[in-house]
Amino acid sequence: AQTVTQSQPEMSVQEAETVTLSCTYDTSESDYYLFWYKQPPSRQMILVIRQEAYKQQNATENRFSVNFQKAAKSFSLKISDSQLGDAAMYFCAYRNQAGTALIFGKGTTLSVSS
Amino acid sequence: SQTIHQWPATLVQPVGSPLSLECTVEGTSNPNLYWYRQAAGRGLQLLFYSVGIGQISSEVPQNLSASRPQDRQFILSSKKLLLSDSGFYLCAWIAKVGAGPNEQFFGPGTRLTVL
């Protein structure tokens, strides 16, 4: 069975600085999708970024980028120029190509200080 | 545009009482629907998913059940709540898979406290 591990329960960063959140996963599949979701205090889940495993190029969305290492089964999220509004819980998630649901890690709580 | 609704937003129930949480989706048809539970300090645990009316798959054995009486309606139920059923329940939908890394959209959630 596939599993997703986020080894950092909490992280902190100062405004304008860069922070990287770690995620590793375990799968025997070759084609799959990876996601980072953000859950702010409102608890609304918001998609931050997604990556298709067959694409070697790392996905980027404005200040958010990923470091996807397929062989190492690693999918880290880098937040550049951190803002107060980035404070939230971040979840890494996996879905295989034919999958019907996301498998989530336990999340990393990110705090941002001014 | 598509929207997803959940109600109630907050619920406090005594142990042993029944439960019914409702989720509806607007602006799409024939979606896959999901129920997740988020307990304190844990990630999202998939409880049920449905690929069509009357089709329910259970991921975790428990005293909860789900039903999909209409295409865009998904209901989570219990006959007798346990203390361990407390948590934050999220409904989600996704367009039928097979078209790439489709985004899964989440509802606003229901906070359930069982006393």
Helix percent band of chain B? under 10%
Q: Structural class, judged by helices and strands of chain B?
A: mainly beta
**pLDDT < 50 stretches of chain A:** none
Portion in strands of chain A: over 45%
Give the ordered list of helices and strands of chain B: EEEEEEEEEEE
User: Mean pLDDT of chain B, rounded to whole units?
Assistant: 91
Q: Helical percent range of chain A?
A: under 10%
Total helical elements of chain A: 0
The description of the largest β-sheet of chain A is: 6 strands, mixed
Order of helices and strands of chain A: EEEEEEEEEEEE
Dominant shape of chain B = globular
Keywords:
heterodimer, A: 114 residues, mainly beta, six-stranded mixed sheet, B: 115 residues, four-stranded antiparallel sheet, 0% helix
Written overview of the protein:
The complex is a heterodimer of chains A (114) and B (115). Chain A contains no helices and 12 strands. Chain A has 114 residues and is mainly beta. The radius of gyration of chain A is 14 Å and the shape is globular. The radius of gyration of chain B is 14 Å and the shape is globular. The mean pLDDT of chain B is 91. Chain B starts with a strand and ends with a strand. Chain B has 115 residues and is mostly beta strands. Chain B has strands spanning 3-7, 10-13, 19-26, 32-38, 44-52, 55-58, 64-70, 73-78, 87-94, 105-106, 110-114. Chain A binds chain B through residues 4, 6, 33, 35, 42-45, 47, 50-52, 91, 95, 98-107, and chain B through 32, 34, 41-46, 49, 51, 57, 59, 88, 90, 92, 97-98, 100-101, 103-104, 106, 108-109.
Short synopsis of the structure:
The complex is a heterodimer of chains A (114) and B (115). Chain A has strands spanning 3-5, 10-14, 19-21, 24-26, 32-39, 46-52, 60-61, 64-69, 74-79, 88-96, 103-104, 108-113.
